[in-house]
């Protein structure tokens, strides 16, 4: 019975992740297309700040979970509520607030992608985000000194080709919801290089610091409030008259006018709060799914979100079916599933590649666990040398 309940709860979490992920993409696009006070709601920088508010709510969830765990002693053991920092220096001084640093990458990535979403269709935006697989693989190889295996390399190649085809299709065949698909695609691609930095920096810090995932996400959201307090006023003070890159009214971001438009339009106000809550639920459910089943299930669900966004776009006639885009999408999905081992090809050594990757991941997990356990510098160097030289 308990096992059935666990599976049922996991299915609910996956459904919440899929639904909330689809909703936050569609809501952001719908906001771009709504007119209030006679003008379009064109506020990509303000929308980015709103996203950080959603992440900040994860910190609220964390404190509620911690409070609940204290009242439920039997659950307290399964909830990590203590931050444990082993390294010295900057990481020790900053403590959990060091997770404000990934927020800088997240802030830049989200801003670029939000502008790109306003310039192209929601489905192209979602598909182009698949490039994150390529970027993270590249960054992991260079900065984290991780190994890439055969199935991962082939998956990365497929993802790159798929994203390329989707981008070409979006430029050649523009749609009713695209204002500048070429510029939108370029900005989304650039954004992936910053988004990849978030993944790599978080993994690096999590290898040195024990911290609840909800708390880490919440701290990133908390640091993002500087967007509201500092960057939005700066963007307001900078003159800009490019309708595609600025929010109008002679400002890079006229956030005061954004608040006015929200107040004048009940639908916009509803979508504003829907976006905040969908971001929050997406992060919470995604972390929960990762904790229960691993990153594989989470990445597969995110791929399914791309399918839903595209189907909705076609259903509401924001775009028409495009054969080249469809081919790119299929290649992109196949590459993503291959990279994440949801598909294991039974030939050309792919099964062996997956097995070598599994063994490597186990060694890596042991290495990180040893670092968090506080081994001596000499032991750490020996372990690191063994880890980097391990061949399977």
Question: Can you walk through the features of this model?
Answer:
With 392 residues, the chain is mostly helical. The chain has 2 domains: 333 residues, no CATH class; 49 residues, no CATH class. A hairpin with a 2-residue loop joins strand 1 and strand 2.
Unreliable parts:
75-86, 376-384, 386-392
What is the strand arrangement across the widest sheet?
1-2
Helix-residue proportion: over 70%
SSE order, one letter for each helix or strand = HEEHHEHHHHHHEHHHHHHHH
Radius of gyration: 22 Å
Tell the overall outline: globular
Strand proportion, as a percent range, falls in under 5%
Briefly note the structural class of the backbone.
mainly alpha
Tally of separate domains: 2
Could you tell me the mean pLDDT?
A: 76
The termini sit apart by 40 Å
The helix count comes to 17
Number of strands: 4
Query: Biggest β-sheet: count, sense, barrel?
Result: 2 strands, antiparallel
